[in-house]
Amino acid sequence: MSPVTAPLSPLSPSITALTLHADAAHLLGNLAFGSFFAWSVSRYCGVGFGWLAIVVAAAFGNIVNVSVLGPDHRSIGASTAVFAALGLLSAYLWRRGFRSGATRRERMAPVVAGLGLLGFTGAGGTNTDVGAHLFGFVAGFGVGLAVARLGVPRSSVAQLGSGF
């Protein structure tokens, strides 16, 4: 008799992949860049809501990555979340304005910087999952646009609930 197993949610593998790493260098690289970008997102969105937004964007980026590259594609590591945080930060700062009185050209700086970092840090190496980086950034950018438009919950209850 075969064991009965519950079907996995489409989000389960997408989120689990964010916690797996090939080796210590892979983990440390994601921790270094991820800590910086997550700290920056948390600065504008709060810790709880910021992390919720990053994880949701990263999961969506992983879903799109597998959908585009096929079911045999394997992706591990938090780099999708790292680039989701970068995309979120780029869009949020672009739409909300990172400097009052900035010209239209100056307001584009976060988008240009985000795309530059995506290209510089996310497109090289033999084992680099460029799709995960790209789709993480794009998903994060979309979430950042939504957060900029809808606003960030500022109450401690909302932040705690989001973080939970």
Largest sheet: none
Radius of gyration, in angstroms, nearest whole number: 17 Å
Q: Given the C-alpha coordinates, what overall shape results?
A: globular
Beta-strand share of residues: under 5%
- Helix count from the secondary structure assignment: 8
Order of helices and strands: HHHHHHHH
Strands, count? 0
Residue-averaged pLDDT:
86
Low-confidence stretches: 4-8
Structural class: mainly alpha
What is the helix content? Answer: over 70%
Assembly state of the chains shown: single chain
CA-CA gap between termini: 39 Å
List descriptors.
single chain, 164 residues, mainly alpha, 8 helices
Strand and helix map with partners:
Elements: H1 11-16, H2 24-45, H3 47-69, H4 79-96, H5 104-107, H6 109-122, H7 130-150, H8 156-163
Helix pairs in contact: 2-3, 2-4, 3-4, 3-7, 3-8, 4-6, 4-7
